[in-house]
Amino acid sequence: MEKEENQNNTSKEQNFGTTEENEKSEENPNTEDKIEIKESTPEEKVVELEDKITRTFAEMENQRRRFEKEKEDAFEYGGYSFAKEALNLIDNLERSIQVLKSDEKLKNTDALNITLEHLDIINKDLISIFEKNNIKQIDSLNKKLDPNFHQAMMEIEDDTKELKKTLEHLDIIKKDLISIFERNNIKQIDSLNKKLDPNFHQAMMEIEDDTKEPGTIIQEIQKGFTIKDRLLRPSLVGVSKKVTKKEEKTEENQENSKDK
């Protein structure tokens, strides 16, 4: 009896263990079952194929453009090396012309003038041939240095440019001062080509000029200013007068001599 009971208990335990395993397997299925391989729909496959075809065509178009560009460059710049070497001809011609021009012994001689004329013709012919082949000179004088086209060999001091800069700065200062004056109702008196007005002008000299009416201001020695409606300083000016003819002067001198 006891043996039978033990056997029954062991069978129950085994059955219970298998049920637990089944429950666990149901609760925790394998990862292989979890990962489902999603197949593409026909529409998605069509879109994917269209994208691949579009990319392929784009690559082919880029290759075609590169080929066309290389072909054009080969045609346009095939003679680049030759052209670069040929530029030395123009350089040497220009140097020769400068040497001849600066030679004191040859200056102002007929031989020099004829030689320079021939060299100039050769120079122009070469430049014309270059231009026909799309080789052009770079315009450099009075231009800003551009490292893409120019190579600086030396620096030269230019006092005129410094003077221009100084004058520009002074002009800016002057305009600023006039602007400050105008904001404070201080204004310049407009004098040139105006009739002399003793309220605003002070004549310092008379200048003979038949093109202007007598009493017209043709020179401004010092500018005048007003503050609102009141004179701050008169303009010092030169006014026009009629030209006295030499004949009138001689007649006056003769009459004066007769009276004496």
Task: Map the helices and strands.
Layout: H1 2-27, H2 31-34, H3 42-76, H4 80-102, H5 110-132, H6 159-183, E1 186-188, E2 201-208, E3 217-222, E4 225-227, E5 230-233, E6 235-241, H7 246-259
Helix pairs in contact: 4-5
Could you name the key traits of this structure?
single chain; 260 residues; mainly alpha; Nucleotide Exchange Factor Grpe, Chain A, domain 2; three-stranded antiparallel beta sheet; three-stranded mixed beta sheet; 58% helix; flat
Task: Note down, in words, how this protein is organized.
It is flat, with a radius of gyration of 50 Å. It is mainly alpha-helical and 260 residues long. The chain has helices spanning 2-27, 31-34, 42-76, 80-102, 110-132, 159-183, 246-259, and strands spanning 186-188, 201-208, 217-222, 225-227, 230-233, 235-241. Among the domains are: 80-132; 157-184; 189-243, Nucleotide Exchange Factor Grpe, Chain A, domain 2. It has a 3-stranded antiparallel β-sheet with strand order 1-4-5. It has a 3-stranded mixed β-sheet with strand order 2-6-3, with no helix packed on it. Helices cover 58% and strands 12% of the residues. Strand 4 and strand 5 (230-233) form a beta hairpin. The longest helix has 35 residues, at 42-76. It contains 7 helices and 6 strands; from the N terminus they run ααααααββββββα. Helix 4 runs antiparallel to helix 5.
